């Protein structure tokens, strides 16, 4: 359900999440490029070129996808055979449905692929998950179902192809304008690594700007009321380091079992996002000493 309908049921928590490498174990776009497109070596070169600002993430990703010539339905079929979800994501999703926590996928990938994988691996109820991502369209004069017949259509004009903060921002603005309404806790889970090491920090930053603007100078137009929000950052990835450096409220996760435990505890009032973030900060400090 898109904004603002998401708010009609007055959810206690809204859960935004990345897809590739966060809900899935492997990145689906990397898999397609390596196995159906121009291969791993060229993909890595594209990653490096993005890292060194020779091309944007958007350009590099477009090149990757343009190198995949299989008809689009065939790509989805092969991905369903080769990409697995985190083994605990379905448990989390079933719990979120029961208690009325909307799950919104924000991805730099492609909506029909994400929908195809989620429905294949979870079942038809995965059709209820809102997905905000890039689209896939025909490549005229061909149709998507033909060899070389599809292309990516980016979500917006940003160098990321999809600026994830654009989806979160209206929620923040809504609660700025309606301070009397109970504000849901807004959580985000990500690995900070959509296809591209290094550049991932920027992509991570893009969503971090949306969830905790008050910690970053110069972004004061975003709501200070967002200070209770929390970012789940995948253990051992760049996003953790970024959060530590910027003082952004975060906690780490290994898989969706740990995300569910923390989210449930917040939902049930056994802890708060502030307590969770303080624990993570304390742990990180002890690790360094
Ligand atoms: Mg990712």
UniProtKB/TrEMBL annotation:
InterPro entries: HAD-like_hydrolase_phosphatase, HAD-like_sf, HAD_hydro_PyrdxlP_Pase-like, HAD_sf
Gene3D superfamilies registered for this protein in UniProt: HAD superfamily/HAD-like (3.40.50.1000)
One Pfam family in the UniProt entry: HAD
Keywords associated with the record: Hydrolase
Domain of life: Eukaryota
Entry annotated with the keyword Hydrolase: yes
Gene Ontology terms for molecular function: phosphatase activity
Keyword GTP-binding on entry: no
SUPFAM superfamilies according to UniProt: HAD-like
NCBIfam families: DKMTPPase-SF, HAD-SF-IB
Protein name: Phosphoserine phosphatase
